[in-house]
Specification:
With 156 residues, the chain is an alpha/beta fold. Helix content is 40%, strand content 24%. The chain has 4 helices and 10 strands. The chain has a 6-stranded mixed sheet, covered by helices on one side. It has a two-stranded parallel sheet with strand order 4-6. The protein has a two-stranded antiparallel sheet with strand order 9-10. The longest helix is centred in the first third of the chain and has 27 residues. It is globular and about 40 Å long.
Length: 156
């Protein structure tokens, strides 16, 4: 429980860095807003970000396919591509929904911690990444992320 709280705190801090990094960019370009959805998907949360450059980032996916319904509400019906998925850790309550996303959306890149986990959910996730040839990047605390106009540091 305590670890989950600190992971959520780390994600919120990362998002705060992103918002701070985009505020100046918004004034200099189109003025589009950063859009942020926090999905209550049962055990845990999922966060969906639509950047001012219209890049889409999904952070965690929850324990089941509920995230698909929430994405359907946040994204245009004809949009089936997500630029980046960030998996904070490999427990089923954060990862199982990502498997469903990978089955229904084109995902361009996945950021993961690099830690392995001996569960069927994790093995399914790795197999989907392999089958779909999705580029992954192992990140650690302190890794700097630049994604279009967004700049931040990974804290998980």
């Amino acid at each position: 429980m305590r670890r989950s709280f600190f992971q959520l705190l780390a994600v919120v801090a990362f998002l705060a860095l992103i918002v701070a990094g985009t505020s100046q960019h918004q004034a200099q370009t189109r003025g589009d807003d950063l859009k942020l959805w926090i999905f209550d998907i049962g055990q845990g949360d999922s966060i969906f970000i639509d950047t001012p450059d219209h890049h889409q980032i999904l952070v965690d996916g929850g324990p089941d396919s509920t995230v698909l319904k929430r994405l359907g509400q946040a994204m245009p019906l004809n949009d089936k591509e997500i630029d980046m998925v960030i998996v904070t850790h490999n427990h089923a309550d954060h990862l199982a929904g990502i498997d469903e996303v990978l089955k229904h959306y084109q995902v361009d890149k996945i950021l993961i911690s690099g830690a392995t986990y001996d569960s069927q959910t994790y093995k399914n996730f790795v197999q989907l990444i392999t089958d779909k040839h999705i580029p992954t990047e192992n990140v650690t605390a302190g890794t700097k992320i630049d994604f279009g106009a967004l700049h931040g540091i990974v804290i998980f």
